[in-house]
Amino acid sequence: MTPPASTAREAGLVACSACHLLCPGPPAGSRPGAHRCPRCGARLHSRKPDSIARTWALVIAACIFYIPANVLPMTTVTSLGSVQSDTIMSGVIYFVQSGSWPIALVIFIASVFVPLLKLMILGYLLISVQKKSTFRPKDRTRLYLVTEAVGRWSMLDIFVVTILVALVNLGALAKIQAGPAALYFAAVVVITMLAAMSFDPRLIWDAKETTHE
Questions:
Q1: Most buried pick, 1, 17, 127, 182, via CB within 10 A?
Q2: Counted domains in the chain
Q3: Residue 125: its H or E element
Q4: What pTM did the predictor assign?
């Protein structure tokens, strides 16, 4: 049986989080964060400090903002004196009823499905790391990479609202204004992006390494 390959951590090496240079680890007994990268001067850490706690805090905050982002109006349309407010889902339903299935599908995936899926995946990764699970670490790492890559596309709905507000401004005839949900939705997207950045995927493999010690 082929022995497991040695990792950088087992070899006493640390990757710089800024320039990704592989550096010798800090000497034993040194203060955490005191050792710096010889190339860029960034502080060296074997793992991101307080990664799990920071990511949990951001995930919980995003879950809280996710509720008003979907309940409150995203846009308020004023046309010939009548005012109509639409949430994200009511906008999706409107496009479905009008026969614009592709637009409805894009808005639903980018504005509802992706943020919720991202929160669920991050929650799953956090729980699996805290339970020191060794279940399919490669697949969990792929999940994290996909989550980090697709998160920014959730801003599509905000871009659409911004363009509509800028283009449709005909005074008393027609006007589109961004609703309060836009701010909460933007907060959800930004916070989930920060949560993905604060999570250290190397924690997924730590439990796997301890089983070979």
A1: 182
A2: 2
A3: helix 114-130
A4: 0.83
Contact yes or no for 168/95 (Cβ under 8 A): no
Q: Are 90 and 193 in contact (CB under 8 A)?
A: no
Q: Which domain holds residue 183?
A: 49-210
The residue to which tokens 């860029």 are assigned = 40
Annotate 154-167 with DSSP letters as a single string. Answer: GGHHHHHHHHHHHH
Q: Judge if 73 and 124 occupy the same domain.
A: yes
Same domain as 59, residue 1: no
For residue 34, count other CB atoms closer than 10 A to its CB.
10
Q: Are residues 125 and 164 in the same domain?
A: yes
What is the C-alpha separation between 174 and 38, in angstroms, rounded?
Answer: 60
